[in-house]
Amino acid sequence: xxxxxxxxxxxxxxxxxxxxxxxxxxxxxxxxxxxxxxxxxxxxxxxxxxxxxxxxxxxxxxxxxxxxxxxxxxxxxxxxxxxxxxxxxxxxxxxxxxxxxxxxxxxxxxxxxxxxxxxxxxxx
Length: 124
What we know:
There is one protein chain. This protein is mainly β. Helix content is about 0%, strand content about 50%. The chain has no helices and eleven strands. The protein has strands at about 5, 10-15, 20-25, 35-40, 45-50, 60, 70-75, 80-85, 90-100, 115, 120-124. Strands 2, 4, 5, 6, 9, 10 and 11 form a seven-stranded mixed β-sheet that branches. It has a four-stranded antiparallel β-sheet with strand order 1-3-8-7, with no helix packed on it.
């Protein structure tokens, strides 16, 4: 069973940047599509971004396009989410997830393994 652990969250002012990391232990991430999701208080978990195993294809939620970038380093067994131009609406717990599907999926049900999340708070 893979263990995913997110890090890099914190408190940042609007307009600022954060870089989230998702590191895997016990199993490799190399052959898996990876996704980032987020959940704000009182809201459902929503898709943010996903990336295929070879970085050939990405997918982003409209709300983050042009501001967030997903990437991966398979040698380090780590996936990243670079978040720029943050706005208060980006405040949420951010989760990384893994799926054996080879396409950059956007639905939570398609992902099999999840991390515990990292809090991102953007102040106005």
